[in-house]
Amino acid sequence: MNRQNYCQEAELIINTLELEDSKKNLIRLNWLSSIIHYEKKISKNFFLHNLFSIIGIVGGISIPAVSAFDDLFEPSSYKVIVSILGIITASSVAINMNQKYDERWKHFRKVVEMIRIEGESYFSSAGSYYTGKTILENFSPFMGKLKDIKSSEINGYFSKINHISKKEKETNSKTNLDIS
Fold this sequence. Notes:
Layout: H1 3-16, H2 21-68, H3 75-99, H4 101-123, H5 139-175
Helix pairs in contact: 1-2, 2-3, 2-4, 2-5, 4-5
């Protein structure tokens, strides 16, 4: 099921819940909009990962292929072509590795699936919501779990940034030793 169909189906389910409109709107805001937000991030990072990977692969294959036909080119144009292909290939691989698009889309996929499963469990009174309580009684625990999932994702992101920042500081301090 594609994103648009899923959202339409979710909207139908939300509309049938025996909740006040304000609580339904909170579900749309906190659950459905999160799914849409993360799905967009998944699509973007998946596309960029594949784009830079394909450029790296094609460039990596092209350089030896162009080298095999070096006699077809003038020496100066041959060097330019191989150099440009090398720069494009190396840049593409470096960007893909530095930005970690593959890790990002996998991470966002995991987060969106956790959010989706939580909502589906809540709507169907399954899992931790299989308590004999009503949808209304399970509303606050559901919203709390959504908050926990999103907070965990945000905290994980910032701890990763802090970890990278600390490594950079350590590297800089090792390379900038005072030799007096």
